[in-house]
Amino acid sequence: MADFSASTPPLLHYLDQGNPAATPLVILHGLFGTLDNWHTLARRWADEAGLRVVSVDLRNHGRSFHSPEHSYALMAQDVLALLDHLHLDPARLTVLGHSMGGKVAMCLALGYPARLAQLLVLDIAPRFSNMEHQDAIIAGLQAVDLAALQTRQQAEAALAARIPQVGVRQFLLKNLYRREDNSFAWRINLPVLVSQLAAIGEEIGAAQPFLKPTLFVRGGKSDYITPDDKLHGIPALFPNSQVVTVPDAGHWLHAEKPEEVFALVKNFVGHL
Question: What string of DSSP letters covers 116-163?
Answer without folding.
Answer: -SEEEEES--SS----GGGHHHHHHHHH--TTT---HHHHHHHHHTT-
